[in-house]
Amino acid sequence: MIALGFFLCLAGFASLAMATTRVRDDLCLKPWTPYQVLSWRTVAILLLLLSWCLAVQSSGWLLGTVRLIGTSHVCAAMVLLLLVPIRRHR
Amino acid sequence: MKTQPQRGLRQTMAAFHTWTGLLLSWVLFAMFLTGTVSYFRDEISQWMRPELRQAAGQLDASVASEVLVRQLADLAPAASQWSFSLPDARQSLATVSWRNKGQSGRSRGNSAFLDVQTGDRIQPRETRGGDFFYRFHFEFYNIPFPWGRWLAGLAAMLMLVAILSGVITHKKFFTDFFTFREGKGLRSWLDAHIALSVFGLPFHVMITYTGLVTLMTLYMPWSAIVGIDTAERKAQYAAQTQGALRPPSPSGIAAPLTAVGPLVRQAEALWGVGQVGRVTVMNPGDSSARIAVARSGDSRISTSPQNIVFDGVSGALLQAPVSTGAAVQTRGIMYGLHMGRFADVSLRWMYFLVSLAGTAMVGTGLIMWTMKRRSKLGDPLRPNLGFYLVERLNIVTMAGLPLAMAAMLWANRLLPLNWGERSGWEIRAFFIAWALSLLHALVRPAKRAWSEQLMFVAGALALLPLASWLTTDRPLWRSIAARDWTFLGVEAMLWCFAVLFAVLAIRSKRVSGPSNAPRPSRKGAAGETVSWTRSSQAANQ
To answer: pTM, whole model, 2 decimals?
Structure first.
């Protein structure tokens, strides 16, 4: 459950990164339409909410929320670090 | 008359952020780094006491309590109080302590490590272990009470101000959320500083604010002075916040102590199996004996103490856990969030990593301060006193402190086991290494001081497992074979940090800085000075 929550959180932050102009440029993708940006953000929020639900289910409201915040810090940093070699080889 | 253009909120906050961030940032860096390693305080303590073996398995808490009470009766038969913590997932040995008659506080030497499986007393080397880093984190060392704690509070307050002003200053909060531009000088440092700050922002705010809450009665004692005025209220306050127990006066009539095991089982029936953390026996062997069973903090965030008190002769329940008010609960949760004692292995690692990011956030901020100002120096080889001081203090803090910590671990392995004041000499090794780092930073050019000290730290950390192999009977392969995750984890982390410091040393050597560069000519102005200026401009845009 914890591992699944972690991967959902990671996917959520990856989706959030995809919604930003700078990451899209780094990946040499076509400009997103406003609808596509909204879709990426919606997916990201849903994934993060799902990750929160799993954390709360496994550890309770208080501990689960603490776990989600800790997970989100690590996942956001992981997405940033994954983008570094992509930018380097662009 | 020329009027100065009015500065906006962001510019004002930027200046505020810079100076509040700088003022005590060296203290903050030390607090953050020692606090970060303190999340593995138990593990570091175990590594520093290699004589303590992992127990083969864990006994039931009630059986273990019976064994420990029997051992304490042998160790300290005349004591007025016995106390022991039960083994848990992080500490497979029990720690017992006792208080002699007429003694009010804790006394060093009145404690022992016991293996509950065998009942053997294990005498490890004398060391403060990870507790030194933990205490240093909020009261430093040899600073009379309460001034060390006041300094820590002031630094934490400035940190909170720097965080909030930093958030206001950072205008592209969401646009730059996943941005790190590599190899762009000051811009890269700024990106790193922002990333380290923004990703861990809730944690940084939480840890700083709750850090202040942990010592709130020291910083703001007035409400307690006014509201908690009678002896009864003071006792109630101490019981609710610290779990302080009031031992009854001994009657002087001898009476056998009741079996502790059933009382522990009663507590487990209330809190759950494995939830008993500590047992205290007051006035053992006297008809006024009391036995207090305290709940462990492993599975709950709040550190508000929960005790059940039994009659030590009849075993009758005297006092159920005290119900605490909302204010005490809030304080307990904030305290618990700061300490992270409730965290399991994965959450503890998250605490460690994000706290390490906080340390790096302070460090990158300090580096940026010097980088920005270096480009504005008239002659980078002859900086003004302020710049010189900041630059040297940066080296002494960011390279010197890890060096001092490594020196303490080396002293732990190299000092003879029967050396008098052994733990004191470990601490002296820490400060001697730190003083040598200061001396080195003062006599060497800054760039060389950086790379040399960082490389020295890398070497000191990388060789520590080797020292452990040569001086103890717990080499790395034996830890692997025995699946001793504590030893394995600490030594693996030492190598990880050694690699990190080696990379930093190599990179700091590669960066061509004005410290070693020949004096820039008027024409060439030494490409580096120009590039510093450019990157500063880029960062200011």
So the answer is: 0.91
